[in-house]
Amino acid sequence: MNRLDQHQPLTTTITRFYEGDTISQVFYSNRNDLNTVSICARNPDRALTPMTFKLMDGVTIVRTLEFSGGNIDNEDCTKFKFDKIADSKHKTYTATISSPPVDKKLRSPAAFGIEMHDGIMHYKTFYYQGLSEVVSESLAQIPPRLVSDPIFSILWGSLITFVIICLRK
After folding, report:
1. End-to-end CA distance of the chain
2. Using CA atoms, how far apart are residues 143 and 161, in angstroms rounded to an integer?
3. How many CB atoms lie within 10 A of CB 59?
4. Mean of all residue pLDDT scores within the chain
């Protein structure tokens, strides 16, 4: 299962990104098994520009994905999914999107939009967590949640009691 690690949700502007440009965002991974970076980009012209997504740890390229501008979703963030990085916890990565240069004499470069807030891209990162870990983590969260909301606990307990009484009849 993919679980959310980081989320930079604030968006106040759309920054233009043209063919031949490179745009990047630095982020910190809180967990091991990083496997998805989601960047909110827009492709209003539906340009089929060849592009490259790179994930870097310093100057070392950790993952590379080739894609087309046609893969950029105009309604939602575009997810770049890759093989999990087992030792990603407490590391800083740079995600870049780039495209080859355009001969501006032949045509004007296509424009893409990147959602930004104060110079930070709207992005999300996800890590992979196995089913057994998800179940054990979820079960461990039940007692603190029940204690933190006593009214919910009373209603939940009443519902369980009602169901047991109805089943005995």
Report:
1. 40
2. 18
3. 6
4. 88
